[in-house]
Amino acid sequence: MSSPPDRVLLSERATGILTGPVLLPIFAATLFLSAALLFAVQPMLTKMLLPQLGGSPSVWNTCLCFFQATLLFGYLYAHLSATRLEARTQLGVHVLVLAFAVMFLPLDASAGTPPPKGAPVLWLVLRLATTVGIPFFAITATAPLLQRWFSRTDHETAADPYFLYAASNAGSLLALVSYPLLIEPYLPLSEQSRLWSAGLAILVAAIALCWLAYRRRENPAKQKASAGGAAGSSDRLRWIAYSFVPSSLLLGVTTHITTDLASAPLFWVVPWRFTS
Length: 276
Prior knowledge:
It is a single chain. The protein is mainly alpha-helical. Helix content is 76%, strand content 0%. The chain has twelve helices and no strands. The chain has helices spanning 4-19, 23-48, 50-53, 57-84, 87-102, 121-140, 142-151, 165-183, 189-216, 220-223, 233-260, 265-274. The longest helix is centred in the N-terminal third of the chain and has 28 residues, at 57-84.
């Protein structure tokens, strides 16, 4: 059993690891992993639905609408959590969200039967909500939350944390390109789901590590910074309205390509990557 001086020394070493030059790589790697999981789960879940609904463009577009809406709710949750809650409360709430997400693992959207008559849009949305909805929601909040935490540290680049989107973009691109080329042809859906679940478990641990690093390097002056330059309600509503433009283009381009060209996996991926 370690003596008190030994435990103090181990604690100081752990703190040194979190407060050293690895702060930025920890956040970047976590954002990379979260984006990869976020973008890999969408084609995987959609393929699970193929036996029930087929591969028509309307099925994929309904899935895209669901994922886009869930993304918006995830960003709203991250914004409210970061601006209305104290640091410890933020962590507690997000731990509950992540724990709730784990209850839906491993993901399986293949069960159930759509209604025999009519367009099964509501059935599809409900099926997605009860399988991947909560895990997807939890992951979407990762990028804004982590950027918020990083911006409150004393790191030299913390004043403008949006460069971390480069890590997110790299993770999303890798997931979208690797799924039709490396994952889908060689792994059954059950194995894909298990690997994705393992990735989510790693992400939970990485988010906890980021929070510890944020608390170790927290800059109190930034916590008290004035919010006088915050955008007004009209600006926020206008920005939300602007976000509908690329989402509409995403759906339109996807429908055109997969209807008039072919419903090949790479064609599903291309518009999603370059219009999102």
